[in-house]
Write a structure and sequence with these properties.
The complex is a heterodimer of chains A (265) and B (332). Chain A has seven helices and 13 strands. With 265 residues, chain A is of the alpha/beta class. Chain A has one domain: Rossmann fold (3-Layer(aba) Sandwich), CATH 3.40.50. In chain A, helix 2 packs across helix 5. The radius of gyration of chain A is 22 Å and the shape is globular. By secondary structure, chain B is an alpha/beta fold. In chain B, the strands form four sheets. In chain B, strands 7-11-6-1-4-5-12 form a seven-stranded parallel sheet, sandwiched between helices. Chain B has a five-stranded parallel sheet with strand order 15-14-16-17-18. In chain B, strand 9 and strand 10 form a beta hairpin. In chain B, helix 3 packs across helix 4 and helix 5 packs parallel to helix 8. Chain B is elongated, with a radius of gyration of 22 Å. The chains are: A alpha/beta (265), B alpha/beta (332). At the A-B interface, helix 3, helix 4, strand 7, strand 8 and strand 9 of A face helix 4, strand 7, strand 9, strand 10 and strand 13 of B. Strand 13 of chain A pairs parallel with strand 18 of chain B.
Amino acid sequence: MFKIVVLVKAVPDPKRASEIKIDPRTKTLTRADVPLVMNQLDKHAMESALALKSRVGGEITAISMGPPPAAAILKECLAMGADHGVLLSDRAFGGADAYATAYTLAKGIEKVGSADLVLCGMASSDGSTEWVGSELSVFLDLPVVTGVKEIIGSSEPWWQVKAHIDNGYRELKVKLPAVLAVTRELNTPRNISFSGIIKARKKEITVWDFDALGVPESSLGLAGSPTIISDLRVSESKREVEMIEGTREEKAEMLVQKFADAGTF
Amino acid sequence: MGGSTGPVWVFAEQSDGSVLPVSLELTGQARKLADELGTSLEVIFLGDAVRENTQILFNAGADKVYLGEHPDLKFYQSERYMQIIVKLAQEHQPEIFLLGSTATGKELAPLVAAKLKTGLTAHCIDLTLDQEKRLEQIIPAYGGLISIVCPEKRPQMATIAKGVFLKPDTSEPKQGELVLLEIGNEQDQRIELLNVVYEETEGVPLESAAVVVAGGAGAKDLEGWQQIVDLADEMGAALGSTRPPVDEGWVELDRMIGQSGKMVAPELYIGVGLSGELQHMVGITGAKLMVAVNSEPKAPVFEQVDYGIVDDCREFLPVLIENIKAYKADKA
């Protein structure tokens, strides 16, 4: 059976992410009560998995690494149509950089069993490192294509894909099993149906902790991260703002005058 | 060299054989880091028949260029490029390794980093050495700046966008050592590149625009976004974006400004319906005059611009566009 693994990440709601800030005094992050949502690009990975499943058949497992509340986005994946949801969650996984995250996810994928295709979003809205897909491909010893905007599936082991380059795209053939990190152009994620929610309600999320993964603690979380944060500081602006006030019409008029004064027209 | 510190490395990316500007910028910055560390600066340059284009790398400050030439290397291919670089790194133990935040760099850097079991920092906006001579990799996040170091593993790897560092002066011919790499004929076993297609981007290009109109999540929907497009058109401006409109599909990825997008330096920047997250704002520090429109008076963007207007962009932009039209008509 064709096995697809989709990697999903719970991120602070991008619409409210700016509420999380560095406290200038304590140099720590202020814990604003920002809800976790599924990373937008991962929805495209999920949609791609569903479309492929309907064409070539198979089974979809959604995997996420994160705190217990991240189980909610796995429920969302089940409601979209995933067959299984696996949450990698343990204090020992905390503080992981992209390298340790990719390593932990790779161990989770290995435990799920031989995946034919691993799909993930090209980047996450919170970290924006874009490393996880590529790094875990190394840990799994699989080929990877990033920036994927079109997948031409097949029953053969060699699949054709289109992927971004700067100022254009490349067409590649990649031999499965493989990792594909996808972009928004790939598809439009489906909305969750009411029946999907009902079905998802009956399914359990599998939670794997440190013991379940069975890898040394030194390769996980903060301990397994080659990079660390050495300093946090508040950035100071060099500009002094002048607020333009008045009625809407007045503000527009004054602004156009500022543009004109700057030689814009 | 013989010192205990390994060399500083830069991956020189080429397009049609020519070294990309971002790679020259990195070579310039790497020269400074190498001097401070008292070590050499070495550049990896892979392509097909690109030898005549290596001189500019020496002019930019490289002590040594590792040149790999082969028809298979004309375009970036992940497995070939990764294998060549990883082998070379295992032999020469670089202290630092920098790559451009290009599509190629963003795929190649994590492959090399994972193979070498080392850290990699994305889209840095500055690189310096700390007191322990570790590479301090600075990224914007959470309304501030975060310094990241890679204390034990080597090389210390980072990607940096075009425009973060100044392009070095390459007018003066300089000497360096050219090392030719032996590139075999081995085939990629798992990925085959079939074709590369270049596409013209539509509209005013961001990098050279005198006026940039950038929009954010405050547009709320495609209809709201269209008003931002209309404003850009009315002003003959290049259209820019923060990440949310890209994720929403209102605008193409190549319009994103900031840490993981493009760096711009227009005469006038107008930010509409965006909160002023540093990841975006670091892309416009070179702008001369900056204006922001946002409905939230406490939005951080108002601490980072010259003129601010508190208003719902969806209500304000039509009025602004009418006023611009009227002004132009008056002058005509």
